[in-house]
Amino acid sequence: MKRGSRVSYLEELKKILSPERVSTNEVILDQHSKDESYHRPSLPDAVVFPISAEEVSKVMNIAEKFKIPIVPFGLGTSLEGHVIPYNGGITVDFSLMDTIIEVFPTDFLVKVQPGVTRSKLNQELKKHGLFFSVDPGADATLGGMAATNASGTTSVRYGIMRDQVRDMEVVLADGTIMHTGNLAAKSSSGYNLNGLFVGSEGTLGCFTELTLRVYGIPELIVAGRASFETVGQAVDAVVSILSAGIQVARIELVDQQSIAQVNVYSGTDYLEVPTLFLEFHGNEAGLMQDMEFAKEILADNKCSEFKFEKDSQSRNQLWEARHNLAYAVMRAHPGKKMMVTDVCLPISELANGIESAKEAMARYELPGGIVGHVGDGNYHALLMLDVNDEEEMKRAESFNSHIVEFALSKGGTCTGEHGVGIGKMKYQSLEHGNSLHIMKALKKTLDPHNILNPGKIFNMN
Amino acid sequence: MKRGSRVSYLEELKKILSPERVSTNEVILDQHSKDESYHRPSLPDAVVFPISAEEVSKVMNIAEKFKIPIVPFGLGTSLEGHVIPYNGGITVDFSLMDTIIEVFPTDFLVKVQPGVTRSKLNQELKKHGLFFSVDPGADATLGGMAATNASGTTSVRYGIMRDQVRDMEVVLADGTIMHTGNLAAKSSSGYNLNGLFVGSEGTLGCFTELTLRVYGIPELIVAGRASFETVGQAVDAVVSILSAGIQVARIELVDQQSIAQVNVYSGTDYLEVPTLFLEFHGNEAGLMQDMEFAKEILADNKCSEFKFEKDSQSRNQLWEARHNLAYAVMRAHPGKKMMVTDVCLPISELANGIESAKEAMARYELPGGIVGHVGDGNYHALLMLDVNDEEEMKRAESFNSHIVEFALSKGGTCTGEHGVGIGKMKYQSLEHGNSLHIMKALKKTLDPHNILNPGKIFNMN
């Protein structure tokens, strides 16, 4: 872009936002040049901090006029380079739009601005006996979670981000402010825009308000840890528990390598063997019956030890340790960057998938751990990489490809919850076949000048 | 259309399908001229009976070439004129594509052709200890249920049709055969095409295969009937039960007028007062605790009588009676046609909505009953109308408008589960505002010549 036009659009931005909410400060630009992944950073030309949908709409009009990219930004916790502005342009930071607008307890709904984090939302909801279910490891913003269709440990019971979005206010590329849904629990009226915009990774519009489904805090919550000799036995136990119709709220695999990291980082003394972290939600009688049944099934599947975490303190510690796992791994590898694979398979293929990943990990000489939301058939291999070591990066990419190709050959997906960003672009054609053309046609219809997070999910040229 | 071109495309159809699967027989055309609603019938020019996606693709190519409408047809149980070919053209009847392709018990999935009915599917699934949850009153085809995003009595617990669709094979307007999803329990890869095509009412493509989520038959199922003096009390009880976090599997309102029809048609002797039909699914201990709690709440909400239906025979009778209600009402009004309203409201507005509907029903002098999937905030007023009585039809339309406008003013939707068809087209602009333009743009992208079920959901001119 010519220097002159950059000056002009910055001037225009400063006119519509107050000048202190349009930044070209180097530290600010640097903060918005990266996410939590191994993907190469790249600076935006400017960062704006809008406080309303109307302001976002005006920013969008300027971007359309000057044909410059718009990249929405929550907290930068994405894992596939989603928020990295590889084509420069304007990064729209939603941190000033962080108001919880209203809680509707009877309707089990809450209306929020996109910059609200899930932990802030849950603090507020607790006062009403409610909680928001989706919990990726990071304390991400709800706008970002909707953009990537995030999920996490509880989706086996409560569903993924897309299942929680009842309505969104969205600003389109041409500045139109529109709504994607309504407040009713279901609707057959017109096309499902909620579903289309959730998971669109900033490529179809910017979210400026979300109405989300919330749940009552269950009467009783009990968590536990089940230890196994092998990962295969642990996964077999998961399949048995699900087949028995036991309603687990969480069922997470943490392998031996990962448990060791947890113990170091979180100060726990968990047995360092392949482990399932489980949680049950329900009324007291039902939960106790489910727990007893689950214990029998675990024992039948060669579970060597089962430990309850009955009090809320050790339960919280368990899930905090699980959520902090990625940070634990990062801390243990200073100077390195994280690559997390993210395939999701039909549950019947999960054990084979993980076994194949373990073999490939050894073959490619990549030390790392495997964790997963195994109730959904979703697992992650966590690798810490030296991004300057080209040969190592090549091996890691080959390993990731191996995992993805295995998953796709079994009817799975290259990304269960992290999204495509730039990291999974190369698998889109293999995964979607000719439906990829349809996705591109939809993108072109909604963003004809390709200003919205260009070069993410797929290239339009 | 000129007679000559009709002869030509019929010849082409007969070449690609065998001639006996291309019909212009008057009885066949008449069968495909209507649905179960009050909407005016209209004949197609021809009905074809394909047996594969490839054949549907070839039919689509002919339709594109001659610019003639394509209307997909399951069993004709739609309630808003969806399958009525107002612009003539080719009706694609899927009754020969009725194979249950494969059940995947471990993955809780089943792959079916679109002409399979929900009752046929459930017969097969029972052998595996599984069931398919979505149950509109009619024994509709699964293709049709996906087209309208159907739901029914169990969505309060298991979700709507869109929640069950994991993948579909779809034939687009240009004959492309593509897939909308995969077999994994969740995915963040690319745009959500499953969600977009479910509920598209034949306006974006024809479904030729569906992979659907199924559930394990619960350990215990108990049903019951709760009687109240007023509909308002019954609805208050529903709100209390949901707020208490009791996991009902079904919670249906049947008003006094409707219960009377049920008794006549189904030979039951249910108390003729506003009634809730309830069902609980779970493990034995949990279900018993939930039931006891529910009974307390019902009593607190002035429930005058609560009757269990413990054995499976009286339980089945209860739900059969509920499902046959629309037919009961039809039977009681020979020569008349049915109009069923279908709004869905935030649950906090449901009691007001129903009260307002009851008042309007009296004001417009329209006798009828009210039933509803009240756990979702969805209710129906069932009216039997003399379609030749213009004045009565006008009053009925005004009544429907009153109900819809009330629902929309409270953040609800004009159709919770029946779909738009032609009956709800006039409310699309009021409900969707400027997002209606986006829906039309998506339609134009996927069906540029407007051959797919034209004149449904919205007009493209």
UniProtKB/TrEMBL annotation, chains A, B:
EC number: 1.1.2.4
Domain of life from the UniProt record: Bacteria
MF (Gene Ontology): D-lactate dehydrogenase (cytochrome) activity; D-lactate dehydrogenase (NAD+) activity; FAD binding
CC cofactor: FAD
Keywords: FAD, Flavoprotein, Oxidoreductase, Transit peptide
Classification via SUPFAM superfamilies: FAD-binding/transporter-associated domain-like, FAD-linked oxidases, C-terminal domain
GO BP terms, alphabetized: lactate catabolic process
Domain FAD-binding PCMH-type: 40-217
Keyword Oxidoreductase applies: yes
Family: Belongs to the FAD-binding oxidoreductase/transferase type 4 family.
Protein name per Swiss-Prot or TrEMBL: D-lactate dehydrogenase (cytochrome)
Source organism per UniProt: Paenisporosarcina antarctica
